[in-house]
């Protein structure tokens, strides 16, 4: 039976526990897709958007938890940071190669379906940053931006040896910023501009902002410390 909890006597294990929190934020950051999804709603109301957000979050929690638990029960302490790499070897069971291929095909389908959604928001953001108010629809411009962004993404993916490390830094910086810092700052800004928040709401916004900053700093420092320790 694999160990189901962290080793609190190990400093490295405790550091990994603090570092993994920012990584988990990556799994729930979809804020940049809120506007496109809202525009596609048949009935564009905040209530419908809240409902979609709640259902999506619950489904994500269930799927992520089942995936993580299944992987850890199957591989125990040998579970890799990218669990898919565990399926590159013989599992020691019947039809092991078939199961490995099913997992690979499922991951390919996942990437094919997810990447266009994320890339759409990325391209729109880059378009607005570069052209500003002149950002008018153009097939030529869209194709050019797509090719350039895909080339940069491919270049970055070939230069980063471990996707886990990329998730560590993006989770501790952009992930926490998009998911917690910016929403809290927006709420506090609206409070100053007439949309008054209640005492509890203001306190929650300040607490969320402060907690996100602390976790971000711990995450970045922990990642740098881990890299330095491995290099030595």
From TrEMBL:
<protein>
    <recommendedName>
        <fullName>Amino acid transporter transmembrane domain-containing protein</fullName>
    </recommendedName>
</protein>
<feature type="transmembrane region" description="Helical">
    <location>
        <begin position="55"/>
        <end position="75"/>
    </location>
</feature>
<dbReference type="InterPro" id="IPR013057">
    <property type="entry name" value="AA_transpt_TM"/>
</dbReference>
<keyword id="KW-0812">Transmembrane</keyword>
<feature type="transmembrane region" description="Helical">
    <location>
        <begin position="143"/>
        <end position="164"/>
    </location>
</feature>
<dbReference type="GO" id="GO:0031090">
    <property type="term" value="C:organelle membrane"/>
</dbReference>
<keyword id="KW-1133">Transmembrane helix</keyword>
<feature type="transmembrane region" description="Helical">
    <location>
        <begin position="102"/>
        <end position="122"/>
    </location>
</feature>
<keyword id="KW-0813">Transport</keyword>
<feature type="transmembrane region" description="Helical">
    <location>
        <begin position="170"/>
        <end position="191"/>
    </location>
</feature>
<feature type="transmembrane region" description="Helical">
    <location>
        <begin position="203"/>
        <end position="225"/>
    </location>
</feature>
<feature type="transmembrane region" description="Helical">
    <location>
        <begin position="12"/>
        <end position="34"/>
    </location>
</feature>
<dbReference type="GO" id="GO:0015179">
    <property type="term" value="F:L-amino acid transmembrane transporter activity"/>
</dbReference>
<keyword id="KW-0029">Amino-acid transport</keyword>
<keyword id="KW-0472">Membrane</keyword>
<dbReference type="Pfam" id="PF01490">
    <property type="entry name" value="Aa_trans"/>
</dbReference>
<feature type="domain" description="Amino acid transporter transmembrane">
    <location>
        <begin position="16"/>
        <end position="191"/>
    </location>
</feature>
């Amino acid at each position: 039976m694999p160990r189901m909890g962290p080793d609190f006597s190990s400093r490295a294990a405790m550091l990994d526990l603090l570092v993994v929190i920012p990584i988990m934020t990556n799994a729930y950051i979809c804020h940049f897709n809120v506007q496109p999804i809202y525009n596609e709603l048949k009935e564009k109301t905040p209530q419908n958007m809240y409902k979609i957000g709640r259902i999506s979050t619950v489904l994500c929690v269930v799927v992520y938890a089942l995936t993580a638990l299944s992987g850890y029960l199957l591989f125990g302490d040998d579970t890799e940071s990218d669990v898919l790499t565990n399926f590159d070897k013989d599992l020691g069971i019947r039809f092991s190669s078939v199961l490995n291929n099913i997992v690979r095909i499922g991951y390919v389908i996942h990437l094919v379906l997810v990447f266009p959604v994320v890339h759409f928001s990325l391209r729109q953001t880059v378009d607005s940053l570069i052209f500003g108010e002149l950002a008018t629809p153009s097939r030529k411009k869209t194709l050019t931006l797509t090719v350039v962004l895909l080339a940069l993404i491919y270049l970055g993916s070939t230069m980063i040896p471990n996707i886990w490390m990329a998730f560590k830094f993006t989770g501790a910086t952009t992930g926490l910023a998009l998911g917690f810092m910016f929403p809290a700052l927006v709420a506090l800004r609206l409070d100053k501009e007439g949309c008054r928040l209640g005492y509890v709401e203001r306190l929650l916004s300040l607490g969320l902002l402060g907690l996100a900053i602390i976790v971000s700093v711990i995450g970045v420092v922990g990642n740098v410390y881990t890299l330095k320790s491995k290099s030595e």
